[in-house]
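Reviewers of the previous submission asked for a worked example of the structure-prediction workflow described in the proposal, so we include one complete record here. The input consisted solely of the amino acid sequence. No template or homolog information was supplied to the procedure at any stage.
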Amino acid sequence: MAGLAILVAAAPCDAAGAEEGEDERPPLSMVIFGSMEAGQTKSFASIGMKRAIGGGLAESGFRLFIKAGGSREETRRRPPHGKTDKAEAQSMLGYEWRIGSTFFALYAGSDAETERRIEPFFLGLSTRYGARLQADLWITPAEGMMLQAGGYASTLDRRLWGRFATGWQMPTGSYFGPEAEAYRERDYSKFRLGLHLTGLRLLGVEWRLSGGWQKTSDRPSEAYGTLGLHWLR
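From that input alone, the workflow returned the following structure tokens.
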């Protein structure tokens, strides 16, 4: 979800295409996104889409946001560790305001999670439902510079998540800079600090690479890495 701001990198290209007589091409109305991240004790992957409802992504309007993901992590820090598998899904409706290369989006909708715990002599399965409020912001305050922020609040375990990143444009057109991320739920918290490379174009897809160091409330500090992608349609 973080990283949706890569969308605006395509906006200048759309305008240029229109000036070159490509008005007959339909406006870009959907972005398909995905991400993978890995740590020493947890892995996570997700896929989703954001679609403009009436019109294109380069103009203000309503948006449909759908995302699904899954993770595997150790249940306990001490042996026997056990395994916990989680599957999550969000379906939200929102509105995105756009002014030039700046946008702000606000979404609200459902949040669901299924959890399976695998331990010696025990197998637990549960499914929970809740509500979620999410916001995304992208700003280019100066030429060759970007600011991106995103966050959400969910009724599931009173979850709160936020990410902030800034970057400077490289000769390749991508942005490089620092990022910070924080997460909290009922009895767990996590903080990350690292670097990101956003907007790398390869194979017709835009990529985001990030990595750094994280500290959680239940484990020692460790490294993290994230790979994200966006495909405009």
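The mean pLDDT is 86. We consider this example representative of the routine output the project will generate in years two and three.
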